[in-house]
């Protein structure tokens, strides 16, 4: 039986917001396939197992209704297999991420045409090795005079996910591992510009899982994602939780939804370098983090504030480490080409030009009028704080360096440039007081000291890896626990092993 509650009035607003997001990213959506009819935003079969099985679809669907129906069926089957079933499922996702990383990485690079091929491959491999699984789901137990209480971590059910083009298959892979480890299934509306590699990766994962444990469609995917399918997924009755990775507009839409939302919002990570820093070490770390996948990572270094007493020495250290310094004229030339104004009225703001987003440093050097050298990873130059590169999440391997009179000014300007996203910040310093001051003021989810930004995700630092960093909703770097709800089971008066007898 299909339940059809009144249509939500939020859906037109969500469609408009998704349009804004795509416009801000400057990546053109694929045209809607005429064979795909918009699905009902709220239609949902209450008991998926009562209808015909969706097995054999390998997770690929033409409508949201079908995808959610299949996902619900898979969820019910997964519940019956318990933790061991989850372990087996995510083991296949991890194995494919590692074993097929080169082929799938090449597919993603060819389709999206942004970033660096070697990093597309590496991201999949690292996710296969470092993404957290069922080991995060330890229960809490309270035993006392009045009995026993066990707090377990239960799944939500079907999760609706919207993923970006910047890390199309990696985001799906990492989220799927965490969500399935938590006992859930997921329906993904991928970015249209990364839909083909997403489809192929999801198909391979579902096939492997089905052959082993007999469950298909643990990951369901909309083959022809559109604005309408994104809005339908947001409002679908069968979706119990939303997970969104995107910019400010889509993050705001998710948080205004009537559903619980896990939101990985935007970032504009600043770097502070004070007079106590090891400048050569700082330069190597900044280049590694900012150049990784051509600066597409939301945690990557975007702008650098350096105290005046070591500014010239820091610029020299950057050159020694292999970055190419642009002249003031070249910086101006690049800025005029790379940053464009988007939006209207009060919402008008700078954004990266789509033609240069995620392109190689050599391309940026040529645009600026400089001569690139072989193996160039990053270009940089001195700007003032008003340069539009400073407040913009540019997603290209150019870094503006701003000269500051002292550490206090550098920290203040870093705070202003981060826009209160509370996402990521980096400092290079041996002054604990400056570290503390910056950490308290910016209050970011990730705060890296004396390392590259990626160390905040356990790459060159400690910890675990996820490509969804939920800053607006406060969950931080997501794990399987993020996609669970607490459930308490209490037994009164019995099992008082340590208590006094009656």
Overview of this structure, please?
This protein is α/β, with parallel strands linked by helices and 502 residues long. It has 2 domains: 12-265 and 477-487, Aldehyde Dehydrogenase, Chain A, domain 1 (3-Layer(aba) Sandwich), CATH 3.40.605; 270-462, 3-Layer(aba) Sandwich (Aldehyde Dehydrogenase, Chain A, domain 2), CATH 3.40.309.10. Helix content is 38%, strand content 19%. It is built from 14 helices and 22 strands. The strands form 6 sheets. It has a 7-stranded parallel beta sheet, sandwiched between helices. Helix 3 packs antiparallel against helix 6 and helix 11 crosses helix 12.
Radius of gyration: 24 Å
Q: How many structural domains are formed by the residues?
A: 2
Strand residues, percent = 15-25%
Widest β-sheet, arrangement of strands: 13-16-17-12-11-18-19
Architecture (CATH level 2) name of the largest domain: 3-Layer(aba) Sandwich
Assembly context of the chains? single chain
CATH superfamily of the largest domain: Aldehyde Dehydrogenase, Chain A, domain 1
Name the poorly predicted regions.
Answer: 1-12, 21-48
The chain-level structural class is: alpha/beta
Report, as a whole number of angstroms, the end-to-end distance.
53 Å
The share of residues in helices is: 25-40%
Summarize the structure.
The chain is an alpha/beta fold. The chain has helices at 11-25, 64-99, 101-112, 117-130, 168-181, 195-213, 227-235, 248-255, 279-291, 311-320, 328-338, 361-368, 407-418, 432-442, and strands at 2-3, 44-45, 60-61, 140-144, 147-155, 158-162, 185-189, 219-222, 241-245, 260-264, 270-273, 303-307, 324-325, 339-342, 349-352, 379-383, 398-404, 424-428, 446-449, 469-470, 476-477, 484-492.
